[in-house]
Task: inverse folding
């Protein structure tokens, strides 16, 4: 590396690798505007060649010779599909190979406390894409044998034939999803490259796409400015340790927002590229306007106004969550236990992120939080006192404010292990805040007793409400299944 990108990175106070990643992602806008103007109605093979070459060349510019690892994985998966595609063996081999390849890459490239932008970054996206592709071919084989054995989601994504190597290169190196996602199945990509696809679009997607770009740039500016005061490693600094507890707790809220802004910005930029290409078209709204959110990875309004952690799960890293729900969570249905399926999915996501203990603790925190929120909601709904509070006009406003404060207070404590990564850094940071979120969530079995008394909840009423809520959850999960709503979240 070096040259003008290094000089520019030093001027803005960032890393050269990070700057090249952003430039590489932004290059997708002119690349796909050119495609829409001149190639979208041309031969499908020409379109695939264009996507494969532009993505491969920009990948080489951003991450260097490491882009060859993407080629190795794609070629191996293609040969696997040609030889034993459509079998359970192919799924097991693809899952094992692609995940192992990624973990070996993590071991040699990302073992320090700082996250290095290297070939493992697009490789983690590609890992999911190739595993998903193998499963889709397997579902296609099952469709031929017994169409009734597949769910609606599986029927939608399944492939009854093995994609060509050119299709796989194009699908993998598509500039809108190569670096940081989003995920999209091969069936959708095949539809996208048909010449009639653009003829059926109701309007130009450019305005919405560039709007997402502008919002993404705003989040990036906020991250760059905020990082000057609250860098990623702030909880490990002497300044953090010497800060009084009240100011430390408030500072963690800002610190968490600054870090999350980085993820939101790159996802919004990538989404904008997919929107500009037309890939993100998801039909029309009831009023007849076009819906361009098919590749959205974050729901900003839901995220910024979240009043429970469940809202964050619905709104953050949507496409990865949908992938995990479709290819992992729902495939664990044979366990016949929602909790085990959720835990298995979270373990996979933790392993997929890498070796650092911080990833595993983050997902453990998530599991504990979601379990708490489920039990608390059950208790709250069965409270006679809460039922009376609902009669007040200000109830929903006050409840929303309290919920918003709750989420933003505890979010940095649950998220803290993710950027700190190593056990010593996490331990010291948690010691400085007295392990407050562990006391809150793990102490729930103790403080729920006086809470029941205050809310005037009897054990019988709570059990009855729980049974009613379980029935309601079954119906909600049926709806969520069709909408790819998921029960897990990751970064």
Result:
């Amino acid at each position: 590396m070096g040259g003008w990108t290094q000089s520019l990175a030093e001027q803005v106070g960032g890393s050269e690798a990070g700057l090249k990643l952003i430039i590489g992602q932004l290059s997708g806008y002119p690349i796909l505007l050119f495609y829409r103007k001149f190639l979208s109605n041309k031969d499908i093979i020409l379109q695939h060649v264009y996507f494969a070459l532009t993505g491969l060349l920009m990948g080489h510019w951003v991450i260097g010779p490491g882009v060859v690892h993407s080629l190795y994985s794609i070629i191996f998966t293609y040969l696997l599909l040609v030889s034993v595609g459509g079998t359970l063996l192919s799924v097991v081999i693809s899952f094992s190979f692609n995940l192992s390849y990624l973990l070996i890459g993590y071991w040699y490239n990302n073992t320090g406390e700082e996250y290095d932008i290297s070939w493992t970054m697009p490789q983690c996206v590609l890992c999911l894409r190739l595993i998903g592709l193998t499963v889709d071919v397997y579902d296609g084989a099952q469709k031929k044998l017994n169409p009734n054995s597949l769910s609606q989601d599986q029927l939608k994504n399944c492939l009854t034939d093995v994609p060509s190597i050119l299709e796989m290169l194009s699908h993998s190196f598509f500039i809108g999803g190569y670096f940081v996602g989003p995920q999209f199945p091969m069936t959708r990509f095949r539809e996208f490259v048909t010449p009639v696809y653009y003829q059926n679009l109701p309007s130009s997607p450019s305005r919405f796409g560039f709007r997402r770009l502008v919002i993404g740039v705003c989040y990036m500016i906020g991250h760059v400015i905020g990082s000057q005061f609250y860098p990623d490693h702030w909880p490990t600094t002497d300044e953090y340790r010497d800060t009084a507890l009240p100011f430390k707790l408030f500072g963690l809220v800002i610190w968490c927002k600054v870090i999350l802004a980085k993820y939101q910005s790159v996802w919004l930029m990538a989404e904008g590229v997919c929107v500009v290409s037309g890939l993100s078209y998801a039909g029309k709204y009831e009023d007849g306007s076009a819906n361009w959110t098919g590749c959205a990875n974050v729901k900003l309004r839901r995220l910024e106004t979240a009043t429970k952690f469940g809202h964050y799960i619905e709104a953050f890293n949507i496409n990865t969550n949908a992938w995990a729900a479709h290819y992992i969570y729902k495939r664990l249905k044979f366990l016949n236990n929602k909790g085990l399926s959720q835990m298995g999915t979270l373990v996979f996501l933790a392993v997929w992120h890498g070796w650092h203990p911080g990833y595993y603790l983050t997902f453990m925190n998530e599991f504990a939080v979601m379990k708490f929120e489920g039990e608390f909601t059950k208790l709250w709904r069965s409270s006679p006192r809460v039922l009376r509070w609902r009669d007040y006009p200000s109830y929903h406003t006050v409840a929303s404010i309290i919920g918003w404060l709750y989420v933003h207070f505890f979010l940095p404590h649950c998220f803290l292990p993710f950027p700190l990564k190593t056990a010593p850094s996490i331990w010291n940071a948690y010691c400085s805040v007295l392990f407050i979120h562990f006391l809150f969530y793990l102490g729930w079995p103790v403080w729920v007793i006086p809470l029941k008394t205050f809310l005037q909840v009897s054990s019988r009423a709570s059990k009855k409400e729980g049974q009613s809520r379980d029935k309601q959850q079954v119906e909600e999960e049926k709806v969520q299944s069709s909408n790819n709503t998921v029960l897990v979240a990751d970064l």
User: Anything to note?
Assistant: Residues 245-277 form the longest helix (33 residues). The chain has 26 helices and no strands. The chain has a mean pLDDT of 90. The two ends are 27 Å apart (CA to CA).
